[in-house]
Amino acid sequence: MNCMQTRELIGPQLDGELDLMASLELKRHVECCLACAQVQERLQAVRSAVTASAPYYQAPEQFGDQIRAALRREIPHAPAPRRPWRTFLRPLAVAAAVLLVAGLALDMALHSYRSSSHTLAREVVAAHVRSLMADHLLDVRSSNQHTVKPWFNGKIDFAPEVRDLADAGFPLEGGRLDYLDGHAVAALVYRHNLHVINCFVWPARDAEPAVASGAQGYTLVRFTDRGLTWCIISDAAPATLEEFTRALHANAATTVPAKTPN
Ligand SMILES: [Zn+2]
What we know:
Blueprint: H1 3-14, H2 20-32, H3 34-53, H4 63-74, H5 85-133, E1 140-141, H6 145-151, E2 172-180, E3 183-192, E4 195-203, E5 211-215, E6 218-225, E7 228-234, H7 238-254
Antiparallel strand pairs: 1-2, 2-3, 3-4, 4-7, 5-6, 6-7
Helix pairs in contact: 1-2, 1-3, 2-3
The structure holds zinc ion.
């Protein structure tokens, strides 16, 4: 089950509408997908807040009869309405239609956001797999950041920061050019034990919140930093990628940018 399918099932799950198999699948996904777990938590919180604090009023049983009687007094010559419920339901129907339209608009906005971010996630997974399969992991093979960084000069119009993170357990292997979301991107390659970590870097369009998610057995971490979007993918455990991201940030923050020979 992928993130999009999961998100669609979180609401029904909270309303107790899922069958056992679907709930189990959803549970399995949420356990290893931080992003979906957060969505589930937020919905659960909203649901609890509404249940706990929204006022409920029970109409007395004879309330309907009283209103019908009052209406007959108001319009004595009108024939008794054959379907009195229509009168009561019309304002409700209008309200429901308004809610439906608002809901659809929100849903469409969320959907287009989700599908664009899912398309990107799919592309990132494909690029990662391609790099491992086609013997095209590295265009420049070096653990020296002063070799890898200048290699990108003239090939892309931005300069990704390159750091060897061997001290933190993530030696730099090199880099290559790749293609994502319609433009050339820098791919920095690190290794952690047997796991390859691909870092795709490209100029950010907008500042994006950091997200971690799972897709097809891979963990993805995405964030923007000083105008560049970083998308990190590996089949290493989510905790390992978190550690890697921390090492990346720690090095970027404390190291003075190295002068590279041009
Ligand atoms: Zn997910």
